[in-house]
Amino acid sequence: MIDTPEKQTPAPETETQRTARTVWWIVGAACTGLVLLAAVAFAGVWIWSTASPVKSENRSETYTETTSGVDVTVEVGQIDLNASADGSLVVDTETRWRGEEPKPEESWNGDVFSAEGECDERLVVFWDGDDCEVNYTLALPSGAAAEAESSVGNIEMDGLDGAIDVETSVGDIEGENLRATETRAESSVGSIRLEFAEVRGDINVITSTGSVEIIVPDDGTTYDVVFESGVGTEDIDIATDPGSRADYVISVDTSVGDLTVRYAD
After folding, report:
1. Using an 8 Å Cβ cutoff, are 70 and 144 in contact?
2. Is 84 exposed, middle or buried (0-12, 13-18, 19+ CB in 10 A)?
3. Residue 136 falls within a domain, yes or no?
4. For 115-128, what is each residue's pLDDT tens digit?
5. Contact, 251 vs 202, CB < 8 A?
6. Is 181 helix (H, G, I), strand (E, B) or coil?
7. What pLDDT does residue 159 have?
8. Is residue 125 part of a domain?
9. Where in this chain does the record put each DUF4097 domain (predicted)?
10. Residue 164: which residues within 8 A CB-CB, separation 6 or more?
11. Is 31 helix (H, G, I), strand (E, B) or coil?
């Protein structure tokens, strides 16, 4: 005769277990509700933002004060730095936005003009690039130092003859007719092209990903060209003289990118 084990009867659920299970149901339902509410709110803000018309505003200011330098920072937008025709500082600002209007800030620190074009903290990610953009165009008096930084946007220069220090995270940097006393240009992602009418100081260029082209006048000036690159080739077609015998140093550091240094056509 085979003994058949008696079927075990589950122990009845205790009051504590029932309470715990109820609490977890409530917490789960609340979390689900919060997630759905956040999703609906996000979708509503996105729909409102994209449906709102793009607005724009243009301003222009002329300053006759002595200006030793400018310092311009924008989050999203282009920066143009040009030589002034009459020695004054001219600042043109173009602001484009959808939704909340950005408020560029401008001030003087002694004889240095500062401008900051921030887009504030926004919930919606900028899909189409038109939600916030602050573009600056400045005409600098002779000798003024130029410092500029853009997180997303190009930087262009024309005719500057002071010290140059420009940087962009995503964007190209271009300069022409430069007579800078010293030059520093940096771009994380973007190409850099600098054309000099006269070189009066060392040139330092840094880029993570992007090609570099430097054009100098064929006026007898000699250069020590230092190129460091993880992946990239160099094409140096100017008079070089290593070490202390060179008039100026051209230093280029790129992770991925080619270097071209040549005389102007």
Report:
1. yes
2. middle
3. yes
4. 999 886 544 344 44
5. yes
6. coil
7. 99
8. yes
9. 146-261
10. 145, 146, 157, 175, 178, 180, 182, 183, 184, 185
11. helix
Distance from C-alpha of 118 to C-alpha of 97, rounded to nearest angstrom: 12
Residue with tokens 């484009």: 96
- For residues 236 and 21, give the distance between their C-alpha atoms in angstroms, rounded to a whole number: 75
Q: What is the pTM of this model?
A: 0.78
Structural domain count of the chain: 1
Q: Which two tokens stand for residue 151?
A: 């997180």
Using alpha carbons, select from 167, 184, 183, 197 the residue that is nearest to residue 79: 167
Residue 114 in domain = yes
The whole-angstrom separation of Cα 161 and Cα 181 is 7
CB 95 within 8 A of CB 118: no
* Mean per-residue pLDDT, 227-254: 94
- Look at residue 59 and tell me if it is in a domain: yes
Q: Which domain holds residue 75?
A: 54-153
Residue range 56-115, pLDDT digits in tens:
999 999 999 999 999 999 999 999 999 999 999 999 999 999 888 888 999 999 999 999
